[in-house]
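Hey, quick one: can you model this chain's 3D structure?
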Amino acid sequence: MKKLLLLITFFSLPLFSQNQHSFTYENNQLEWIKVFESSLSVSEIEQIIKSKGMFKSLNLEDNLIKGEVENIKCDYENLGKSSWTTSFYIQNSNMNFSFYLQFKEGQYRVILNDIQLKTIDELSTSNITVMSSNAITPLSDYAIRKGKFRKGFLKSDAEIFEFTLTNLFKFNNYKKKKDDW
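Sure thing. Here's the predicted structure for all 181 residues.
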């Protein structure tokens, strides 16, 4: 009986240990959508966004903030990943994307679309260029194949993007500047 229980536990662990991610793929559009709980007001989040240099082309409406973000490096090292276990396209790219923030009482939803990867360094040999410097490639080229998420993307890459984007948009983690110094 113990062996049977052990076998059931052993084979069911992979089912429960699958990493969750916030990516969706519908109508040939890859998006990252995540809801955050927050006690911050819309104006406080607006001030945080304005104070950071990475949020560009801001358009502020009632309960909606639109904008763009450029040159965000994926933070695989703080996730505990090494360069040996991280896909090269992640190591050699910065993210660019458009974002929308929608607000409700006590929470906000982040929607990212038009997620692009911009190559940092050229990767080439004498005859072949594998990656050109400053080349822009949609993330969907690496994440999607035949309308479904690639297994390699789900296995480790999605976790790196999830960690990076969650930390970027978790505004409770940003410390307010103090006026008294």
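One thing worth noting: The longest helix spans residues 151-169.
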